[in-house]
Design a protein that fits this description.
It contains 15 helices and 21 strands. A hairpin with a 4-residue loop joins strand 18 and strand 19. The chain is globular, with a radius of gyration of 22 Å. Its cofactor is Mg(2+).
Length: 459
């Protein structure tokens, strides 16, 4: 039996084992005892004979990564430690080496958090429905497997191979570019120099906050929030740069800023990358979640591709990519998925596609992207609501049956009209409803947004 620890309490485990990963505060919800027990349970449930382990720059990450490795080795698995890494670097290691993997990171969360992202060999995700609940239950039961022959813990460096693989998928050639990169004191501070050094003849990089620091002294490493892009936008203008790149803490997401300092919608980047992938693989399938811009499926169809709509969340995107053999998938949150990258998401690969497209033209980024930006959008607006179900039912009652309106409940409530659409869905972790809306013009979008918000907030 595992020794008693507050972090191993079933109530705590139920709180931190989320739909797609493990996430909690250190040390009250996550500590090395939990990591060790989870490493052992991971091997028991997945039957892994070798596990790749990586970690981010948070102060608690190295110790928990080592503890996980020890737990896995006790269960008989060999462990390959890749050390400091971005999450997409861990996915690369899982795919390239053919082993199950775990990444210690809390992504964009504040400094007091940490977490684990797990995958099977080939970067296949492990979520609650695909093994994570079983791992949680083994940890809760305190059942430790002690193999007759413990596994061996070794170390390897995959960073150069990772960089080479990304550049083989999206080589950057053409005119010279000046690029400002905001790593947010996260893992892009490690990966970007290795990648950019290989394209130094084309790209001049201006680094911003490259010092690895899990306390995030400059701003949160969460580029979906506008305030965290301000420093990058100023630097792009001051440096007269061609493009700005912002990464989250574990560098699996990327947001871009154009030469005017304007933040670019992830839907626009999704459409651009889709066009590039369809030029390479005509007629291919492209995945988009249901709150990306209407422009994405329109453009995919116009280019001869097949757009497929999914729920929000990486497990749904990756599963649908596997079912349809899609070449690419994009989400509004800045996650971009590539078939040739084991269907995993990579912020750096998305950034390389944006730079490659820009280097191949004489246009500034704002003009290059203009054809992919068609409709004004509200962005995601959160409202605190105690009874989310009642509000969703009220909205359905208001809009279902209206002329020219279609309603579906694939993920929350989506209401679609020829001139506009909106989606309202509940948060998995907080008492929030999230609204996204889009219209044919600013006035239409604002009218729909305000009407829906009025109903949501009247509750």
């Amino acid at each position: 039996m595992t020794s008693a620890s507050p972090t191993l309490d079933p109530a705590n485990l139920g709180a931190i084992f989320k739909a797609y990963d493990v996430r909690g505060t250190v040390p009250d919800q996550m500590d090395e005892t939990l990591a060790r027990a989870t490493g052992n349970a991971f091997v028991q449930v997945l039957g892994a004979d070798t596990v790749v382990v990586g970690h981010d720059m948070r102060p608690s990450s190295p110790g928990m990564a080592q503890a996980f490795a020890e737990g896995a080795a006790t269960a008989g698995a060999d462990v390959v430690m890749i050390g400091l890494a971005s999450t997409d670097q861990l996915y690369f290691a899982s795919g390239h080496l053919g082993h199950a993997g775990v990444m210690f990171t809390a992504s964009h969360n504040p400094a007091q958090y940490n977490g684990m992202k797990m995958c099977r060999p080939g970067a296949v995700p492990v979520g609650l429905d695909t093994g994570l609940s079983e791992i949680r239950d083994v940890v809760a039961a305190g059942t430790t497997l002690e193999a007759e022959t413990p596994g061996e813990i070794t170390s390897t460096d995959v960073l150069a191979d990772y960089a080479d693989h990304l550049l083989s998928l999206a080589p950057v050639r053409g005119r010279g570019l000046k690029v400002v990169v905001d790593a947010g004191n996260g893992m892009a501070g490690l990966t970007a120099p290795m990648v950019f050094d290989r394209i130094g003849g084309v790209v001049e990089m201006v680094p911003l906050y490259f010092e690895l620091d899990g306390t995030f002294p400059n701003h949160e490493a969460n580029p979906i929030e506008a305030e965290n892009l301000v420093d990058l936008q100023k630097a792009v203008l001051a440096e007269k740069a061609d493009i700005g790149l912002a990464f989250d803490g574990d560098a699996d997401r990327c947001f871009i800023v154009d030469e005017k300092g304007r933040a670019v919608s992830p839907s626009t980047l999704t459409a651009l990358i889709a066009a590039r992938e369809l030029a390479r693989q005509p007629g291919a399938t492209v995945i988009h979640n249901l709150i990306t811009s209407r422009a994405v499926p329109e453009i995919v169809t116009e280019l001869g591709g097949k757009p497929v709509r999914t729920r929000v969340g990486h497990s749904f995107i990756k599963a649908t990519m596997a079912e349809t053999d899609a070449v690419f998938g994009g989400e509004h949150s800045g996650h971009f998925y590539f078939r040739d990258f084991w269907r995993a998401d990579s912020g750096m690969l998305a950034a390389l596609h944006a730079m490659a497209a820009l280097a191949e033209t004489d246009l500034p980024l704002s003009e290059l992207l203009a054809e992919y930006e068609r409709y004004p959008a509200s962005g995601e607006i959160n409202s605190t609501v105690a009874d989310q179900g009642a509000v969703l039912a009220r909205l359905k009652e208001q809009y279902a049956g209206r002329d020219g309106v279609e309603v579906d409940e694939l993920d929350g409530l989506t209401v679609t009209h020829a001139d506009w659409w909106f989606n309202v869905r509940a948060s998995n972790t907080e008492p929030l409803l999230r609204l996204n809306s889009e219209g044919k013009d600013d006035a239409t979008m604002a009218e729909v947004r305000d009407a829906v918000l009025s109903t949501i907030r009247s509750h």
